[in-house]
Design brief:
alpha/beta
Length: 184
């Protein structure tokens, strides 16, 4: 087992791109953070290698990163869908510019883990062949798996169902109080 060179920060880093896999990744990270008593750091990386069309809205210099931009709105929509309209106080949102894999690897220094959604071909309507049981990984996930200084978790969209029930920790507390009442 490799030795960690960086102290951990008690946070789970989640890289998102606005896809259904991103929602699943944030949902999984939120549940894991709740179980471990950690914070969730959600980051959306804008790849600035591609030119922005002249008709696309440009962020104003006075705006904080992510405020009012398409990336910020996408990130807020993903977090709202994954964690509900009022996410916990331990959720940090960030919009960054750069090469997605490089930024995620840099931000993952000191994180407990990096959580990413898988690049699923099922969203386009073409089902994977029956022989293939694994979902292919995109280039960002592959690069992060090879170079991140922390464990990397890759979540598929169907792996984490949305639940409208109370949080898992609350369910455990209720079950524990019921079992104590029975045994007393």
């Amino acid at each position: 087992m490799p030795t960690r060179l960086h102290p951990t920060t008690g946070r789970i880093l989640v890289g998102i791109d606005g896809s259904p896999a991103s929602v699943a990744a944030v949902r999984w990270a939120g549940r894991e953070a709740q179980l471990r008593g950690m914070q969730v750091h959600v980051i959306h990386v804008r790849d600035r290698r591609l030119p922005t069309p002249y008709y696309a809205p440009q962020p104003r210099a006075s705006e904080p990163p992510g405020a009012g931009t398409a990336a910020g709105e996408t990130m807020q929509a993903v977090v709202r869908e994954a964690l509900g309209p009022q996410p916990a106080a331990g959720v940090q949102l960030e919009v960054a510019d750069g090469l997605p894999a490089r930024v995620l690897i840099d931000r993952s220094v000191g994180a407990e883990m990096l959580v990413l959604g898988s690049a699923s071909r099922e969203a386009g309507g073409a089902a994977a062949p029956p022989v293939q049981t694994r979902t292919p990984l995109g280039p960002v996930a592959r690069d992060c798996l090879h170079a991140a200084p922390c464990p990397v978790v890759v979540v598929r969209p169907g792996d984490v169902p949305a639940d409208r029930d109370p949080a898992p920790a609350e369910q455990v507390r209720r079950q524990a109080s019921r079992s104590e009442a029975v045994h007393v």
